[in-house]
Amino acid sequence: MRVLITGGTGFVGAWSAKAIADAGHDVRFFVRNPHRLTTSAAKIGVDTSDYAIGDITDRASVITALDGCDAVLHAAALVATDTKHAEQMLATNIEGARNVLGTAARLGLDPIIHVSSFSALFTPDLDMLTTDLPVIGGKDAYGQSKAQVELYARGMQDGGAPVNITYPGMVLGPPAGDQFGEAAEGVQAALQMGLLPGRNAAWTLVDVRDLAAVHLGLIERGKGARRYMAGGTRVPLPELASMLGDASGKALHVLPVPDTVLRGVGKLVDQFDRFLPFDTPITEAAMQYYTQMPPADDSPSERELGVTYRDPRETLADTVAGLRAVGRL
């Protein structure tokens, strides 16, 4: 198939493009700036010569990019933790989904793959992340934007469109050129501080190469609408500190701050965020994810798509090595 990939200059999109291309499919990138392909997907061995220039909010350029394609992987999204960008993020992400997913369905592409997020389904005190959970979305603007797009994508599924949805956890692993996932900032911060605060906190992390394998497994016509969790492994703080310590050669300590205190600090930061002269990842929603993260049921993707999820030790080691290689550690 010829597969259009949005977000291909980013971490998830680039690695997914590599998996799809390595399996023998043709990849076309939809980009705003083609130069960014040379510093991301091209660095991991992907042929980036086939690309279309445009923006997911520009329907005309989306239609042009989809011409001649058989399938699409929609991985592009505006990500921002600053509440000042909330309205722009919501508008961009929902308009982009309507343009890419909606247009692909009208043109008869199959499959149509949408990269969602666990944040679209997250609520505190969940026992397990599964694909049949109702759409809620976290308290942050990003979680709410992903929830709105999720509702649109599920509506397309209900209408019979061959929309496939994936729900990654915290995506880590080796960079695509200079591109890391947002979760790599958490790795960097933990190593720079030398500690991980919390008591019952955990990371549910997935290797970007395993997420790419899920996306490759979905490149098959005629399977209809499907949804798959791709959360990876839930790693509690003591194990996480040990794994990061082994990967970095630096001892990390768990600071037993009550989880309720961390969520309270996040809530306080939210109240004063508009007055801060800098962006901060500390928000009420981020602290909820951090302190109340459940495991994900990835068994359907293992059973039906044949995906084997890596040991998180490998993922964290490759993340740390990548951060060091670009001078961030």
UniProtKB/TrEMBL annotation:
Coiled-coil blocks: none
Gene Ontology cellular component annotations, sorted alphabetically: cytoplasm
A GO molecular-function descriptor: aldehyde dehydrogenase (NAD+) activity
SUPFAM superfamilies (alphabetical): NAD(P)-binding Rossmann-fold domains
Domain NAD-dependent epimerase/dehydratase: start-end pairs: 3-228
Highest taxon of source: Bacteria
Protein name: NAD-dependent epimerase/dehydratase family protein
